[in-house]
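Z., the sequence and structure:
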Amino acid sequence: RPFALIRPTIDGRRTNFFEWQGAGIFENAGFFGAMHGGSAFDVKKILFGFDEAQFYMRIDTGCPARDIIAEGVEFVIEISTNSTHRITIGTAVRHEVLSDDGQASAEMPPPQTAIAELIELAIPLENLCAQCNSTIGWSLRTSIAGETRERHPSAGNIECAVPPDDFEARNWIV
C-alpha cells in the first residue's frame, strides 16, 4: 500500500526515479511466455497512490502501452468506494458510474490520462466520492472486443485507504 503522498507527472513516461516513490506496488507474479499463455500485452506492474486530491495509477506493460491500445486492447479499471466506477482506457477514455446490476448509470468526466510507454492517470477523489480514511478497492483487467484477457489481482480487489489530512506528518521518511 502507499506509504507517502505522491505527485507524479502524468505523461505516460518514466519521467524521473522519484515521481512514484511512496506509491503502492502490485507486481504481476504470473508466468510468462507461450507455454504459460503469456504475451507481450501482459500487465507487468501497477503503481498507485494519492495526493490530497487525486488517486493516481500507473500501468507498466510488456511493450509500449500506445502500441497495445492500437491493437484494440482496452484497460478497464473498476474502483469501489461507496459507489462503483469503471474507467476504460482504449482509443478513448471513459469514466462510468455503475448501478448495482453492473450497468453504466452515469458518465463522469474522464480522468487525466497519458498513454505512451506506459499508462498514467489521475482521478479526482471527489469524482470517486472518496473521503479521508475511506477505503478504495480496485482491480484492472485487459480485454479485446469485450473478452477479458487478464485480471489483476486475479480475484477480489486491492484495497487502500484514502489518506487523512495528517498522512505526511504521520508517515514521514528521510
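The mean pLDDT is 86. The two ends are 18 Å apart (CA to CA).

Let me know what you think.
H.
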